[in-house]
Design a protein that fits this description.
heterodimer; A: alpha/beta; Rossmann fold; FAD/NAD(P)-binding domain; 4 domains; 5-stranded parallel beta sheet; B: about 150 residues; alpha/beta; 4 strands
């Protein structure tokens, strides 16, 4: 490439009126054509469209272009589109650069003159960088035809099942001792017409019958390196202290002296330190909770099959996979003690707890009692933890709570026909076919009261009073309640924070993982080869989670079905002549990708191209400029900076 | 009538968080000051202190280096390295007579478009009060040479 005349084509996109409505594209083009080495500058209504791309391809041939600059949207949207177009015209795709004049300019600055000036500056800077670009070869990576699914809830199970059915080896890692997640605790799933645990069991049954699936429960992912096509992952399997000899006799539970709140029933009822999560849990083995177990050894003495080993240690397993599906789900919003009376009285419960109480296979066999008495006045308060109703609440709608609340209210109406049921709501969002529930509730004398300011729940001894300003009459009303149900929404999964240290995905403000693009790449994480399934990206119903799980599996299969993938070559590379072997870079690398090698009797740095993830930290530290990040070389970034003001 | 002084600010932003936050600000149609020009790097760890000096030499009235929030770096710990380097650079800039308001190191998550707009507005406001950078380029150029030897 050296010595060859640099010929740049600049293409300014109107993006309909998104850019052209604010930026004077004609003027920008006139300006761009005056920049050194720019041979042709054009504007077009949609550069990303087929004719737009064709324009570039034709110009590359016609004008013998060897650099292309497109000024349009963010590179996160169409960098790949244009790279491919450039490649199809026979030019190296890395001789292309993008200037962001939409998100960073036309959408942000309504002033036409100022936006136009800024667009010119951004293009001048990118053209300066483009002059210094070099052709790069993509890194060929052999695809390990295996997938890792993190999270054994309904979305993760579905993703694992679809991939396993497609013939790929799947590792499924679940944090808890049992598969199924929150779905397994839902008494009835509308439209599917089944219980949550039945749905889970049917998926698990098929899954475990397949030879190409390996399930780890009570396990977590502790490290992950590499990238798309080849991730190296370490799994920690925590001890359950009970092995497969367990015959489910339950003798151990009888003698266990420790009793704690049962998280599988959302705190309704208790369990022992040794327990079976629930009747249909998979795997069907008792497990000891090491956090509360006192190691008294009583269970060991009574176990008839000698299945219990209190000295069992955690173990680690290293696996290699081509793709990763993150499906760690959500956790219910947990009201703080005192928030709307929560924790102050047994008469204030959450919707998740109510669902367990209404489950005919639940701890109360589905009979709703508070203490020993039938509640007569039941008050639901909706949007607890959602819709910004309190400082701690998310600003989003949790989607499922309104429908679940009304299903539960109708169930109570069947069970206790003489009861008074109030729904104190901010809004009712029974979307889609669930609207039917709302009309049924109205017909069946469930009373709706709308609030703007969050109601107050006054607990005094055994008495509970709910005070709310009904916005339709503009007056405060008071309801003496026997049962208050806080309709809590979905919040960030507790396990997600731990996973974020290992799996590089980023969260939005509300604590859910962000997709690479909501519309264009809805199940992709920002990092290649990592896909997202279920409510890890935000509140979803069971059905939506199943669809999402299938979608993530389909995306993962697009990688796994190939023998090779090509990774962006924007990695670090050493100029062997310049490197003095000081090895400052070695300590900088977060991936241990830099080692040393001997050349002509000298010790110099060496970058492993598969391990390098392309952050460029080593390049910034190299004192001699020997270490360079391809695509972001010193000369390229400095050229961009130098073009800043002129 | 003389036009109001408009400071020119260069922001070097990491691809995963801060650049995405500026994208989000645009997508959300938040109005942000037009004074800022952004250069994208993959990680704030790529930012060599020389780049910041080079920006001042080339007419920047202010420079922002932005990365993911500490602990959220896409490359595990790149931003910690940025933190260390930029701490040294800040001292250097002070000694050179560059007002501290002219250089900022910010951690902006991909979701925090609001923070970007706040940082940008705040910096523009402060730089308007300060006026253009008043030190000789030669002095800084000399300094760049020195920094090259230090690193």
């Amino acid at each position: 490439m050296s010595g060859e005349e640099i010929r740049i084509g600049v293409y300014v996109c109107h993006c309909g009126t998104n850019i052209a409505g604010t930026v004077d594209v004609e003027e920008v083009v006139r300006y761009a054509s005056t920049l050194p080495n720019v041979v042709i500058a054009r504007n077009y209504v949609f550069m990303c469209s087929e004719p737009g791309q064709q324009l570039i391809k034709e110009d590359i041939k016609k004008y013998n272009l060897n650099r292309v600059v497109v000024a349009a949207c963010s590179p996160s949207l169409h960098e790949l589109t244009f790279r491919n177009a450039v490649k199809e015209a026979g030019l190296n795709p890395y001789l292309f650069e993008m200037a962001n004049i939409r998100e960073h300019c036309s959408w942000a600055h309504p002033d036409r003159r100022k936006a136009t000036e800024k667009a010119k500056d951004l293009i001048r800077m990118v053209v300066a960088k483009a002059r210094e670009l070099e052709p790069l070869e993509e890194i060929k990576i052999d695809v390990t035809k295996k997938a890792l699914v993190i999270g054994g809830g309904v979305a993760g199970l579905r993703a694992a099942l679809d991939l396993a059915r497609s013939g790929f080896t799947v590792y499924l890692v679940e944090k808890r001792p049992t598969l199924g997640g929150h779905t397994a605790r839902i008494p009835f799933i509308r439209y599917l017409g089944v219980r949550g645990d039945e749905l889970i069991s049917s998926i698990v049954k098929e899954l475990v019958s397949m030879p190409n699936i390996k399930i780890y429960t009570n396990a977590d992912v502790v490290s992950m390196e590499g990238g798309v096509g080849s991730f190296r992952v370490r799994i920690r399997v925590r001890p359950k202290y009970v092995d497969s000899k367990c015959n489910l006799c339950g003798e151990c539970v009888k003698v266990c002296p420790v009793e704690v709140s049962n998280e599988y029933e959302y705190g309704v009822g208790t369990r022992k330190a040794i327990y079976l999560p629930y009747q249909t849990a998979y795997p069907q083995i008792y497990v000891i909770d090491p956090e509360v177990c006192t190691r008294c050894g009583e269970c060991v003495k009574v176990c008839p099959t000698k299945a219990i080993d209190l000295d069992e240690k955690e173990r680690y397993e290293d696996i290699e996979v081509g793709t990763v599906i993150l499906a760690t789900g959500y956790d219910p919003y947990e009201p703080e003690k005192g928030e709307l009376g929560y924790g102050l009285s047994k008469k204030v419960i959450t919707l998740f707890q109510l669902e367990r109480l209404l489950d005919e296979r639940g701890p109360t066999k589905g009979v709703l009692r508070i203490g020993d008495t039938e509640p007569r006045v039941i008050v639901f308060i909706s949007c607890v933890g959602s819709m910004g109703t309190s400082p701690k609440a998310g600003s989003y709608c949790s989607r499922m709570c309104c429908s679940t609340m009304l299903s539960a209210a109708l169930k109570i109406r069947d069970q206790l026909p003489g009861s008074y049921i109030y729904v104190i709501h901010k809004d009712i969002r029974t979307y889609g076919y669930d609207e039917e529930l709302y009309w049924k509730a109205l017909e069946r004398d469930i009373r709706f009261v709308r609030y703007e300011e969050l109601p107050e729940v006054k607990v005094s001894g055994d008495k509970i009073e709910v005070v709310v300003k009904d916005i339709t009459i503009g007056e405060y009303i008071s309801v003496p309640a026997d049962l208050v149900v806080l309709v809590n929404g979905m919040a960030q999964g507790k396990y997600l924070r731990e996973v974020l240290n290992v799996v590089r995905v980023s969260c939005g403000d509300e604590g859910f993982v962000k997709e690479a693009h909501v519309k264009l790449r809805p199940v992709d994480a920002a990092s290649e080869g990592i896909y997202l399934a279920g409510s890890v990206t935000g509140p979803k119903s069971v059905i939506e989670s199943i669809i999402h799980g299938s979608a993530a599996a389909a995306r993962a299969a697009t990688v796994l079905s190939k023998d090779h993938v090509f990774a962006e070559p924007i990695i670090a590379k050493v100029d062997e002549d310049l490197c003095s072997g000081c090895l400052v870079c070695v300590g900088m690398c977060p991936y241990n990708a830099i080692s040393t090698k001997e050349t002509d009797g000298r010790r110099i740095a060496f970058v492993n191209p598969v391990l390098c993830m392309g952050c460029g930290t080593c390049a910034a530290a190299c004192p001699s400029g020997a270490m360079q990040q391809q695509g972001f070389k010193d000369k390229q970034v400095f050229a961009q900076i130098r073009a800043f003001a002129r | 009538m003389t036009e109001e002084y408009e400071p020119k600010i260069l922001m070097i932003a990491c691809n995963w968080c801060s650049y995405a936050a500026v994208d989000l600000a645009g997508t959300s149609r938040m109005r942000s000051p037009h004074n800022i020009r952004i250069i994208r790097v993959m990680c704030s760890g790529r930012v060599d202190p020389q780049m910041v000096l080079e920006a001042f030499v080339n007419g920047a009235d202010g420079v922002i280096v932005a990365g993911c929030r500490l602990g959220d770096c896409h490359y595990i710990e790149g931003n910690y390295k940025t933190l260390r380097r930029m701490a040294l650079l800040k001292k250097l800039l002070e000694q050179l007579g560059v007002e501290p308001e002219r250089f900022r190191l910010e951690w902006i998550s991909a979701a925090d478009a609001k923070k970007y707009v706040e940082v940008a507005n705040d910096m523009v406001e402060k730089l308007k009060k300060l006026g253009p950078l008043r030190i000789s380029f030669e002095e800084i150029s000399k300094l760049i040479e020195e920094v090259k030897h230090i690193e």
